[in-house]
Amino acid sequence: MPRWLLHVDLDQFQAAVEFRRRPELRGQPVIVGGEGDPSQPRKVVTCASYPARAFGVRAGMPLKAAQRKCPDGVFLPLDMATYEAASEEIMATLARVAGAVEVWGMDEAFVASDSDPWQLAAEIRSAVTELGLTCSVGIGDNKLTAKLATGFAKSTGKTSAEPEHDAGAAGGIFQLTAANWTELMGHRPTDALWGVGARIAKRLAELDIATVADLMAADRQRLAAEFGPNTGPYLWVLGHGKGDTELTTTPRIPVGRSKSETFPHDLTDPEEIRREVARIATEVAEEMLAHNRVSTRVSVTVRTKTFYTRSKQRKLPQPTSDIATIVDTALAVIDRFDLDRPVRLLGVRLELLPLDE
DNA sequence: TCTGGGGTCCTAGGACCC
DNA sequence: TCTGGGGTCCTAGGACCC
């Protein structure tokens, strides 16, 4: 009996959650991000509704740019608490319909099927629709193919102009497996793979590995020599459409906790920079404490006006939950930076002591 | 249009020890 | 005096993801 992995991905998640409480906005170009004020600098789009995307608005784009592309867009502030609550609702629904769920971020999850994956996918979509939301489902023989299948599900299911893929398509559900892997993925650039980004793709291209098919034909030893003993072979495996087939249903225990802030205007006064580092360190330490965790290491990140980003860290003499010690350490670390250029971002990250002893 | 915030994991080099 | 090889800890940086 084959085991299928299903990847569930909510459509336009944050915008869709907003539509539930403001149904009059359905079908409108809605842009969620920052405080919902496109005149605010250094804030970006977290989620654009499909109508907003038709104007060219994309996640990650500055709000100001989004407004230029879509002047009549409805800008809404981020409301994380509401999205988290919606996410829990969704995951509970998936658990009810599909059993074990591996949560992958707020609006994604993997589930498994030992029988008919299309049937399960349809049931999931129907259950999510009852929540007033919609989702796409990718079916794969592992997590990689399932995840990539969701991308096909979105592009084939959503755009009527898109020619119908015969292999495995059915409105919002798509199946990608070893059987159609080469046909559907072989000609695509390597960064179409989940885990290959722009940088790795560029380095691969320099080795004359431009497409997934090229990667499949590449020499493993060469990849290992180029990318390291772990990453190299991993890339080769990715290229062949292989991946993890196990669901991890126990919630992951965070190994770190961080907080960073891009300031609306650059900071230049070293004393002000120290004060902000102390404030951010206090906040993240308090959150750590609220979760009953203990810190082992403090890392401070500085991003200057030119986007030059560096971090320095210091191991604590012993694991501690003492806020004053953590703040003092963060200050000692920031003092090792040359603060002679305008600072646009400061961040503090705490590494956490593993929970199991 | 200048480029958010919160995560995870991997690699590499130097220090230090045997 | 012209120099080993491994293991581990620590720090810095890179890359990816949602």
Summarize the structure.
The chain is of the alpha+beta class and 357 residues long.
What does this structure look like?
The chain has 357 residues and is an alpha+beta fold. It has 4 domains: 4-10 and 86-131 and 141-181, Reverse transcriptase/Diguanylate cyclase domain (Alpha-Beta Plaits); 14-80, MutS, DNA mismatch repair protein, domain I, CATH 3.40.1170.60; 183-239, 5' to 3' exonuclease, C-terminal subdomain (DNA polymerase, domain 1); 256-352, 2-Layer Sandwich (Dna Ligase, domain 1). Helices cover 40% and strands 22% of the residues. The chain has helices at 13-21, 50-54, 63-69, 80-98, 117-130, 143-158, 178-185, 198-206, 212-217, 220-227, 231-239, 270-290, 323-334; strands at residues 4-10, 30-32, 47-48, 74-76, 102-103, 108-113, 135-140, 169-170, 173-176, 256-267, 295-304, 309-320, 343-352. A 6-stranded mixed β-sheet has the order 5-6-1-7-9-8. The chain has a 4-stranded antiparallel β-sheet with strand order 10-13-11-12, with helices on one face. A 3-stranded mixed β-sheet has the order 3-2-4. Helix 4 (80-98) runs antiparallel to helix 5 (117-130). The radius of gyration is 23 Å and the shape is globular. The relative contact order is 0.10. The protein binds a DNA duplex (18 and 18 nucleotides) through residues 33-34, 41-46, 59-62, 64-66, 68-69, 104-108, 194-200, 227-228, 230-231, 252, 254-262, 297, 299, 307, 310-315, 344-345, 347, 349.
